[in-house]
Specification:
The complex is a heterotrimer of chains A (372), B (592) and C (381).
Chain A lengths: L1 H20 L1 H21 L7 E7 L4 H11 L4 E6 L6 H6 L5 E5 L3 H7 L3 E8 L3 H26 L8 E6 L6 H23 L1 H8 L1 H6 L5 H30 L8 H25 L3 H17 L12 H6 L4 H15 L3 H30 L1
Parallel strand pairs in A: 1-2, 1-3
Antiparallel strand pairs in A: 3-4
Helix pairs in contact in A: 1-10, 2-7, 3-6, 7-10, 7-11, 7-12, 7-14, 10-11, 11-14, 11-15, 14-15
Chain B lengths: L11 E12 L2 E13 L4 E5 L6 H8 L7 E6 L8 H6 L1 E4 L11 H11 L7 H12 L14 H13 L5 E5 L7 H18 L2 E6 L10 E6 L2 E6 L1 H7 L4 E7 L4 H9 L4 E7 L2 E6 L14 E5 L4 H12 L28 E10 L2 E11 L4 E6 L5 H8 L7 E6 L2 E2 L11 E4 L11 H11 L4 H14 L15 H13 L5 E5 L7 H16 L3 E5 L3 H4 L4 E6 L2 E6 L1 H7 L10 H11 L9
Parallel strand pairs in B: 3-7, 3-8, 5-6, 6-7, 16-21, 16-22, 19-20, 20-21
Antiparallel strand pairs in B: 1-2, 1-4, 8-9, 10-12, 10-13, 11-12, 14-15, 14-17, 17-18, 22-23
Helix pairs in contact in B: 3-5, 7-9, 8-14, 11-12, 11-13, 16-17
Chain C lengths: L10 H19 L1 H21 L7 E7 L4 H12 L3 E6 L2 H9 L5 E5 L3 H4 L8 E6 L3 H25 L8 E8 L6 H32 L1 H6 L5 H30 L8 H25 L3 H18 L12 H7 L3 H14 L4 H25 L6
Parallel strand pairs in C: 1-2, 1-3
Antiparallel strand pairs in C: 3-4
Classes of the chains: A alpha/beta (372), B alpha/beta (592), C alpha/beta (381).
Chain lengths: 372, 592, 381
């Protein structure tokens, strides 16, 4: 027993050294995750900052100027053109000079004074439909703010009671709060896949796998030796990313750490299992890389990382049940933003455990089959 | 414009050629200012171990890499400044010839013809002699990837000959090719020179191929150790070679270290059970009276004898006097498992789909025996070897190693086996020390025993200075030693070796086999697969495989005797091998 | 020329033709090339086309009514009629909050006790809406939709009740090119750029690296073929393959996912050619730097695939990115191509978008091939 433990530890030690002493695998483990952390965190956002818009104001009254001042005063909007004729509108939008054209008719101020509805027309570029929707929301909130102001200054009762709108957990609706915890999961998956998916293939390519198989080490010990470094590296890098998320990107971490690390542990287990499954099937590192890639892309897309699972067709929603990242993203976001603890998350833990154990068993079976 | 080679002049002229590479261990000189010429219409052999600088030289000659200094002229052109002119009239076959494996033989030929501007009208007439010479005729429609190793090499030569180059550079065309195909390759090359008057410049690591060249250039550690015809080399050592025919009844294996330590002895090597000795002078070694009766008999010199003599003169510091017995083994009698035989193979069969790779194979290896497994490419050697190591389950028959059934090989039983693959198979990224530590603990050596064993190993194998260097960066000879060290740390009773010394320089090979011989005398059994005749000569008994079955079994001299004919009264082991195989009428070069 | 007897075609053309034919045979016989060129786009399009949608539909919303009134019932009914929401009644606010914690609902609509009474008072809000802000994008959409439904309902109610007070300002919006706001319509064209990057850069980098690994490059180098001919021999077949992948993607996008194609096929084809040249240029450049498949694959994924995915404006709008990152997007060919594609598919042949972006792509190709020409030598050091 003690002998077996020593052997597993020595295997893990060897695995570690092989990973970290080799420039190529060191680069693979460190550079892409870092690049992705920064690129994703900064670039993957749905908050609009630099909205270029044009104004077609036919009104000469004070109210149109007041409303437009609210737009030009907003840090998110940037006025690039003033339009005087209808013909000028289409080229601006077509050629992507502006995302939005605001049109105020010449009776705008007059209508307000007379108490009849004044209309502001927003023309939006729908080629990026999501941007258009978000932008419309921005416009809407500026217009309702203006409505409130008019109501107050002219002390008329608005036809509508205002709504008390609040977003919990992420009051300012920052994309980063949503994306960055997701990146913790995404990169942990990437790392645990790469550590294992390439390691057996590398041993095969270098001929060390045969050398390993003729020693008295059992397949179980070899598998354990491959998994252990995956845990250490996976948890290590995940910790770094969590630190970056909280300290650098100021994402709140509201839940308890034990719940977070329990989820991390189970998730890495499933990632390593899938990685070993891939590595049992491939014979070169290049195929291993391709296999990891082929798993990773759908796993990320179907996990709810960027787009909600609820928006997918039912068949695809069922498919996402096989995706370990799906569960871990729930765990991460629940813990980071909602402050959830272990008790609330046990279905996710269970699913991760199931996927982990099943993939490890399948990987073991694949190995047995390949070896004999 | 292509100019004809200067009539009567040298087709290759190299002067003071220097090339250095900067590697992870600093700047490494690959070629240290070499000068030579090659005469037109000759076969010139560039001979040297792996890492001597052969490929670097070939690549400089073909304009693929730039030299640091010196001058090179190929048919009057400088490959450094004007590579395209050289490449237009040059045939070059790199070590790993780039056949497109997804293309058929004919498509490969067409492709290279197009690249070299061979007109499409005369191609049929051009291909025919090439295809019949290389025996590729029946396979024009076959994908190049589906050809055997020997066939691929022939195919590579055919592709480099399409534009009838006056000069052909071949970089190790025979590496990894079995003796039968090797012989065929050489015949093709010789007939080429005869028929077209081309000049051939061939590099090789096999010393026995030197005899097939008109001129020889010995490259050793980036310098030229000698040049001339094989005959001129042999005459240097005429009368210096002897064979031990009686040695007070002790086995040659045991006498090797004794005799090699005697004054004036340059080289000793086991050849088919006899000890072959090369002396500094023309007299046999003087053995002290007390040692009993020794008798020596002069034998005809070989090229290798001259090479060893030159090496001996160039570096006196060799492996002389180094211990050849592992300190933790020496003297202990190793018990090789339970069985009466170290290895017993009975009716062994292995199928891959419908293809039978090993067919009803039976043989035994006794304790303390060196057993060689020989065969052409695709004869089933590797499959058998992998089954013996427990890496591949047999389809049928029984396989007992160290008294254990390999089919249900308990992991524990592997404790008795040491395994060394042909390709270096330790962790290249790990240091020498880390590798030894890992493998010793894999075999259950731990604690103080482990530290002590690693110290002993480092010292014994001369690896102490390399202790903290990544194994992948070691020079080839040291990598070989490290691999052997790693497979010996647990004192296995049975050693499985796969071409352990191919490409290694002759001194390193001798040092390697002295260690093996020492182990054998302590009771270790060794099984070697090889198609490298120098290694086969170290074996007590050989099995020659063909088509998955056994073709011949016996001691090297018995095998030689089987091949004796009137034309060939004293066949070498290679002659015997080729004769036996051709008698069995195995279609060479094709995977069955 | 020197000694090519009776040869009509210049030898250079013969060599290029031979290289192209060889490469084509290899592509046809190597299943992994075909898989990257056709199977991968197919799978990616399916996953994206069906799996990725930013359009929220049937979002579960908890409804809590402290006191049932005709007004609150009326509003709940109008929610039920909207395609965006799936109202789930809860008896009190605490159970609704619990449900939101469990992620059973994405928002809570709370009608307070005095809902009916305070409907007309301006300062107090009789309705509280809480949305789950974790997924900011969905949250924003839910907020927008809820406000919208609320306003529409109250206007109708006021009309029926002959309450004549109106909003001082109403907002009318028209979304051009994609009035239904289907996210698929902008994701699929963007995906085509990603797929062509995959074929042009990743596949090409891998196949050239494979020639180095298998030693065929060394054999090629000692033939009279020049570096330019060798590069062209790679460029032509993979250009064809890339255009094939493009055609497959366009066909799938148009017929399977009903993405409109408002511009002309000619413009689409020509601009794709420009982009593919740039992508192939990147692939060939990578392979002259990295001579084994493993490293080449890594570099291709990190430097071409990921940027095409994240920084091209394909999912995340470039307008949303910080200035530095927006600067980086200018050196990513895919960002120009995504712009062209979204216009050609959804808006039509708009010269003001197509011409400047095409010029950028042409400049990229020229630049990349100039660099390749400068740094690649027929040498193996």
């Amino acid at each position: 027993m003690k002998q077996a433990l020593i052997r597993i530890l020595e295997l893990a030690r060897k695995e570690f050294l092989a990973l970290l002493r080799d420039k190529k695998s060191r680069t693979v483990l460190i550079v892409p995750p870092l690049i992705q952390l920064f690129v994703f965190s900064y670039a993957a956002t749905f908050d609009l900052n630099h909205i270029s818009y044009a104004v077609w104001n036919e009104d000469t009254g004070i109210y149109s100027r007041q409303l437009l001042a609210r737009f030009s005063g907003s840090p998110n909007f940037r006025l690039v053109a003033r339009v005087t004729h209808r013909e000028e509108v289409a080229p601006l939008i077509d050629n992507r000079k502006v995302l939005l054209v605001l049109h105020l008719r010449n009776d705008f101020s007059r209508s307000i004074l007379m108490g009849s509805p004044a209309r502001v027309q927003a023309l939006l570029d729908g080629r990026q439909s999501n941007t258009a929707m978000i932008l419309l929301g921005y416009v809407q909130s500026i217009v309702s703010g203006f409505n409130d102001e008019i109501a107050v200054t002219r002390s008329v009762t608005p036809p509508i009671a205002s709504i008390d709108l609040r977003a919990w957990y992420n009051p300012n609706l920052k994309s980063r709060w949503f994306i960055v915890p997701g990146i913790v999961g995404l990169l942990t998956l990437l790392i645990s896949l790469l550590v294992t998916a390439l390691s057996v293939a590398r041993e095969r390519e270098e001929g060390t796998f045969d050398q390993l198989m003729v020693t008295p080490l059992t397949p179980f010990q070899i598998l354990m030796g491959k998994i252990l470094p995956g845990f250490v590296i996976g948890i290590g890098e995940a910790t770094l990313i969590i630190l970056a998320a909280t300290l650098l990107f100021h994402v709140p971490l509201r839940g308890p750490l034990d719940a977070l690390y329990l989820g991390l542990f189970l998730f890495i287990l499933s990632g390593l299992g899938v990685g070993l499954m891939i590595s049992a099937l491939v014979s070169t590192q290049q195929q291993g890389l391709l296999g990891a890639f082929l798993f990773l892309v759908p796993a990320i897309i179907l996990s709810g990382f960027a787009t909600p699972i609820a928006n997918m067709p039912p068949v695809i929603q069922d498919l996402t049940l096989l995706d370990p990242l799906r569960y871990f993203l729930v765990v991460l976001r629940q813990i980071f933003l909602r402050g959830a603890g272990i008790t609330l998350l046990w279905p996710e833990y269970l699913a991760l455990l199931l996927i982990g154990v099943a993939s490890l068993l399948i990987a073991g079976a694949f190995f047995k089959k390949r070896l004999g | 414009m292509v100019s004809d080679p200067v009539p009567g002049g040298d087709i290759i002229a190299v002067r003071d050629l220097v090339k250095t590479f900067s590697g992870p261990m600093g700047t490494v000189p690959a070629l240290k200012g070499i000068s030579f010429v090659v005469r037109p219409g000759t076969v010139t052999g560039l001979i040297g171990p792996d890492g001597a600088g052969k490929t670097t030289l070939m690549r400089i000659l073909s304009g693929l890499i730039l030299r640091d200094s010196g001058s090179v002229s190929i048919m009057g052109h400088d490959p450094g400044n004007d590579p395209l002119s050289v490449q237009r009239s040059l045939g070059y076959m790199p070590q790993k010839f780039g056949l497109y494996e997804d293309l058929t033989v004919e498509e490969n030929l067409d492709f290279h013809s197009d690249l070299h501007g061979v007109p499409s009208s005369g191609r049929k007439g051009l291909y025919e002699p090439l295809l019949s010479m290389t025996g590729l005729g029946p396979f024009v429609g076959r994908l190049a990837g589906k050809l055997s190793g020997g066939m691929k090499q022939k195919m590579g030569i055919a592709c480099s000959l399409l534009h009838k180059p006056p000069l052909l550079l071949l970089d190790e065309p025979t590496v990894g090719v079995d003796p039968v195909s090797r012989r065929e390759l050489w015949e093709i090359l010789h007939s080429l020179v005869r028929e077209s008057g081309s000049t051939l410049f061939i590099s090789t690591a096999y010393l026995d191929e030197a005899e097939r060249c008109d001129d020889i250039l010995i490259l050793h550690e980036g310098g030229i150790l000698g040049s001339g015809s094989p005959g001129s080399f042999r005459s240097e050592v005429q009368g210096h070679a002897f064979e031990l025919i009686e040695g007070s009844g002790r086995p040659s294996r045991a006498l090797d270290p004794v005799i090699s330590a005697l004054p004036g002895v340059i080289d000793t090597v086991l050849a088919g059970g006899h000890l072959r000795i090369v002396m500094e002078g023309a007299a046999p070694p003087r053995v002290p009276e007390s040692s009993g009766g020794f008798r020596f008999q002069p034998v005809p010199p070989r090229f290798e004898d001259a090479l060893m003599t030159r090496l001996w003169h160039s570096r006196k510091d060799l492996e002389q006097g180094r211990a050849t017995r592992l300190p933790w083994v020496a003297g202990k009698r190793i018990q090789g498992g339970k069985g009466e035989q170290a290895i017993r193979v009975e009716h062994l069969t292995r199928d891959f789909g419908s293809f039978r790779a090993v067919n009803d194979l039976s043989f035994e290896v006794g304790h303390g025996e060196v057993f060689g497994l020989l065969g052409a490419n695709g004869a089933g050697k590797t499959t058998t070897f992998r089954m013996l190591a427990g890496l591949l389950p047999p389809t049928g028959g029984s396989l007992m190693v160290a008294g254990e059934d390999v089919r249900k090989f308990p992991a524990k039983a592997r404790q008795n086996i040491g395994y060394m693959a042909q390709k270096f198979s330790l962790y290249g990224q790990l240091t020498v020390y880390q590798n030894l530590r890992f493998y010793s603990s894999a075999y259950g050596i731990s604690g103080k025993a482990q530290t002590d064993r690693i110290q002993e190993v480092l010292k014994f194998f001369g690896l102490t200075p390399y202790r903290d260097i990544s194994a992948g960066l070691l020079p080839l000879g040291f990598r070989q030693r490290l691999a052997l060290a790693a497979s010996l740390m647990h004192t296995p009773a049975i050693l499985l070796l796969d071409e352990p010394t191919s490409g290694v320089d002759p001194n390193a090979r001798r040092a390697f086999w002295r260690i093996i011989n020492g182990l054998v005398m302590d009771g270790v059994s060794v099984l070697v697969t090889t198609h490298f005749m120098e290694e086969a000569e170290y074996c007590d008994r050989l099995a020659i495989m063909a088509d998955g079955g056994l073709l011949a079994l016996g001691s090297p001299s018995e095998i030689k005797a089987q091949a004796k004919t009137e034309d060939l009264p004293a066949p070498t082991l290679e002659d015997a091998f080729v004769t036996l195989l051709s008698r069995a009428a195995v279609p060479s070069g094709l995977p069955a | 020329m020197n000694g090519f007897r009776g040869w009509g075609i210049p030898p250079s053309v013969v060599r290029i033709r031979a290289l192209v034919r060889k490469e084509t045979l290899q592509i046809i016989r190597d299943p992994s090339s075909l898989a990257i060129a056709f199977l991968l786009p197919f799978v990616l399009l399916l996953i994206f086309g069906y799996g990725v949608s930013l359009d929220a539909r049937h979002v579960p919303v908890a409804i809590v009514q402290d006191i049932r009134s005709p007004d609150s019932e009326g509003f709940a009914a109008s929610l039920r009629n909207s395609p965006w929401f799936l109202p789930v009644p809860y008896s009190d606010i605490h159970s609704a909050v619990e449900a939101m914690k469990r992620q059973d609902v994405s928002g809570i609509l709370w009608f307070r006790e005095d809902f009916g009474r305070e409907l007309h008072s301006f300062r107090d809000s009789p309705v509280h809406i809480v949305v789950d802000g974790v997924d900011d994008n969905t949250a924003r959409l839910v907020m927008g939709y809820l406000t919208n439904v609320w306003q529409v309902w109250i206007s109708h109610r006021n009309e029926r009740g002959r309450d004549l007070s109106v909003f001082p300002v109403t907002l009318g919006a028209r979304i051009w090119f994609n009035p239904d706001n289907r996210s698929r319509d902008f994701l699929v064209p963007g995906l085509i750029a990603v797929i062509m990057t995959l074929i042009g850069a990743l596949l090409t980098a891998l196949v050239v690296a494979r020639e180095w690994e298998r030693g065929t490059m060394e054999s090629l180098f000692v033939t009279p073929a020049t570096m330019g001919e060798i590069l062209l021999g790679k460029f032509i077949p993979y250009f064809g393959l890339g255009m094939g992948g493009m055609a497959l993607s366009v066909t799938m996008g148009h017929f399977l996912f009903d993405v409109p194609l408002r511009g002309s096929l000619l413009v689409l084809g020509v601009t794709s050619g420009f982009f593919l040249s740039a992508a192939l240029g990147m692939g060939l450049l990578i392979s002259t730097v990295a001579k084994n498949q493993f490293v080449a694959g890594q570099i291709a994924i990190v430097f071409t695939f990921l940027p095409a995915f994240i920084l091209s404006g394909f999912i995340f709008d470039i307008h949303s990115m910080p200035t530095v990152i927006r600067g980086i997007t200018h050196i990513i060919p895919a960002s120009y191509f995504v712009t062209i594609l979204q216009s050609v598919f959804l808006a039509g042949n708009i010269p003001g978008v197509i011409i400047p972006n095409s010029i950028a792509l042409i400049l990229f190709s020229v630049f990349l091939f100039a660099v390749i020409h400068r740094i690649s030598r027929k040498r193996i050091e």
